[in-house]
User: Fold these one by one.
Assistant:
Number 1:
Amino acid sequence: MTTSHTPGRRSLAKGVLAALFLATAAPGPASASGRPGAPLLRLPAPTGPYLVGARVLHLVDRSRNDPWDITIGVRELMVTVLRPASPGPGSARVPQLTPGAAETFGFLAHLVHPPLPAAGVDWAATLAHARAGAPPLPGRGPVLLYSPGGGDARTMGSSLAADLASHGWTVVTVDHPGDASEVEFPDERPERPRIRTTVLRPDIDAATFRTMIDTRVADLRFVLDTLGLDRVGIYGHSAGGTAAAQALHEDRRIAAAVNLEGYLDQPDGELLPVARRKTDRPLLLAGTDGFRDARLDRSWAALLAHGGPVARRQLDNAHHWVFTDYAALVPQLHAAGLMTAAGRAAMVGRADPRATVPAVRDLVRSFFTRHLPVRAPASR
């Protein structure tokens, strides 16, 4: 079940997030099609001591229009909130992608990421390690926001988000409609379809990139306003990492941030404000040897030159999408003969996911353990 929430003010009481977990949500089907012969793709299980509950929210910002389609008239977001939970009646694991989103993604996958197969995958069959309807444990750990990469939906960050929640954090994964490959809303309206698809193209220009980052930062700050959050962490991949770093610069409610391989400049070379100035709050810049280039080095070096609590880390034998669910899914597609070795290397690198998945999880979790720790986990 999806909760729609249209705030009358930009900031609501801090108890809103906890209250939203009181109602239960009906689990979705495990697979829309069950295609014969399609490999069953699996996401790695969380490593923490807690079961993870999931709640999907529909948020509407009436103070902004949608930058990608002005006929909509408002800015709508879909988010998933993951929290440590207890087993409950009917608390089945949710699918990574709903049947509608999976069908749409099946058409778009190889367009958004050319190495992915154009057919032969049942994207609706993969289950996330979170349960709809699972009652939350008492209390609430620190909150982390997640912003996915440009063209990606929040669902492709399911594994890392669930792992963090299993260790006690509350994780809010945020979709950026019009940017994400596909975003499914609770309903269809005359001004927009039920499932919105991306408007982004491979030859993104500086103006589009600026709109994308500005919109993502505004989206993230709206989520903080709507859910009444303060002193949170934020992490993001690619454009989401760019937005996470810039949001840290703009909003004092963000205590620490992780940029998973996002540039800190515009495509024309203009540094973002966060790179031009020193940050006084912790920021981790995490990248791979496969994606590293002169532009990334230049923009990250500009920020690192100011000093402050900024660190850089690198994963070797890896590539850009190793920070997402593709780290686990792409090697399975390669093993099933649906992707080439070159395609696998171009997306996640050649390293074994049994090494890369724990490495990414440990990197992000250890950073937030230092800077936004779960001090008093709820009782199991």
Number 2:
Amino acid sequence: MLSCPDRCSVPSFDDCFRATLGDLFAWRRDVRRFRQDPVDEAALRACLALANLSPSVGNSHPWRFVRVSDADRRGAILASFERCNADAGTRYTDARRELYRRLKLEGLREAPVHLAVFCDEATESGHGLGRRTMPEMLRYSVVGAVQGFWLAARAYGLGVGWVSILEPDRVKTVLEVADAWHLVAYLCVGYPVEEHLDPELERHGWQGRSEDASRLIER
């Protein structure tokens, strides 16, 4: 039995909770189609607080969430996406190119909340523990926080879309952040227009889920 101060009790996670947790993971979708209703501020803050519980190398908490509300900055981010997306479309040929052009790959115009998530690579928090041989652990820690935020958002009825078709240096310039900050994610957040258990890219014929994804490799 774990010893714990009076203010702390060790939770018990039963089969019912685990089933609900499985539903949360299964229904976490990459959302691109948002209603324009304002996001409840308390819900957004609660999701950010839960993301802050994510593990980080050396307990360094290197994630930096930046809310992008200014219309001109949002317009510059959208322009970056449009440049990158047009270029990406040229990399495919024939039917795959046409399919790519029909995909909706962002919700930048509709989403009421934009969050740029950076890794502060100059942080002194954690005193360098755990990243001497793997400095990329700082960025991996930020990815963990993004996933934590994403799952929390799903639990609050919010949708999240991760936009990766962007110019990271351009985003940094537009948002005027520190040189040592590295862009990890640009998130669109809002209430989804529709709910689907299957991923959008699977639904529209781009790529199905791998049947081998859960296989454990033994060595």
